[in-house]
Design goal:
single chain; alpha/beta; D-Maltodextrin-Binding Protein, domain 2; three-stranded antiparallel beta sheet
């Protein structure tokens, strides 16, 4: 019998967060009657390799690669972050961060300096940043930055690069930012948010097509009802979430629209 795995690597910002995700997944899966093996997949292992595995049962995946179809997956449900900026929706944004002691006061002040980004299939670390910079690039009709440092891969690498002064500004998934500030406040004490992008669809839990449709339906229902369960409050507090929203492929179309706008304008990279 095929065994299916669960994983919360995208938002396992600290061991405490990963433990909370593992426990929450176990509750949802148990109520859905779906057997899953939680399998850690720590950085820097490539997420795209994980997403292409045929044994995915419940694994977090960014909405932009879902929309790009870089892996054949079935979206199930997405978390609703509890911070006010999420507006009670399964949505998130990117915080454009700088060192707290920098002289930058507006995003425009960073132009001519160094920007960083994660990978080209990331929404929060690439697509959202590029979309946010596009109007400025269209006015200038040329590079905004003296240097664009890409392939930093993870949000943590962006944070570290800003703190180390290797880049002057970079995008940080705002939900990831909230979690790391919750669990490791010393890492965020020396940065500040200069600007934030528009909201976009939140990364979701997905499964491989091999997970039976009935199991997918039960998991989707389990996530939708999670906030009503007595076990939810403890995990909601630990993970800064208010609940979950069922999702499908069409829910991530916004990310493709942002991509098409930038590419058609001749702005393929955030530079």
């Amino acid at each position: 019998m095929t065994r299916f795995i669960a994983n919360a690597r995208m938002y396992a910002v600290a061991p405490e967060a990963e433990a909370a995700w593992q426990a929450l997944i176990a509750h949802v899966a148990a109520e859905a009657g779906v057997e899953l093996d939680y399998e850690p997949y720590p950085a820097p292992q490539p997420l795209e390799h994980l997403w292409r595995r045929p044994d995915l049962g419940l694994v977090q995946m960014c909405g932009y690669p879902i929309a790009l179809r870089i892996a054949d997956v079935v979206p199930i449900a997405a978390p609703i972050p509890s911070p006010d900026w999420a507006q009670g929706r399964a949505a998130y944004r990117s915080d454009l961060i700088v060192r707290a002691d920098s002289s930058f006061r507006r995003l425009e002040d960073t132009f001519g300096h160094r920007v960083g980004w994660t990978v080209a299939h990331s929404h929060s670390g690439f697509n959202a940043l590029r979309h946010h910079l596009l109007p400025h690039w269209q006015v200038k009709v040329g590079p905004l930055y003296a240097e664009s440092l890409g392939d930093l891969v993870t949000a943590r690498a962006v944070l570290d690069a800003v703190l180390a002064g290797r880049i002057d500004v970079g995008p940080l998934d705002a939900y990831w930012h909230a979690l790391i500030a919750h669990y490791r406040p010393e890492l965020t004490a020396s940065i500040r948010v200069l600007d934030s992008t528009a909201l976009a669809p939140m990364p979701a839990f997905v499964a491989a097509p091999g997970l039976p449709a009935a199991a997918v339906a039960r998991l989707r229902q389990g996530f939708a009802q999670a906030a009503t369960r007595p076990w939810f409050a403890e995990h909601a507090e630990a993970l800064l979430i208010a609940g979950f929203a069922p999702v499908d492929q069409a829910d991530f179309a916004t990310t493709l629209a942002w991509d098409h706008a930038a590419v058609q304008a001749g702005y393929p990279l955030p530079v």
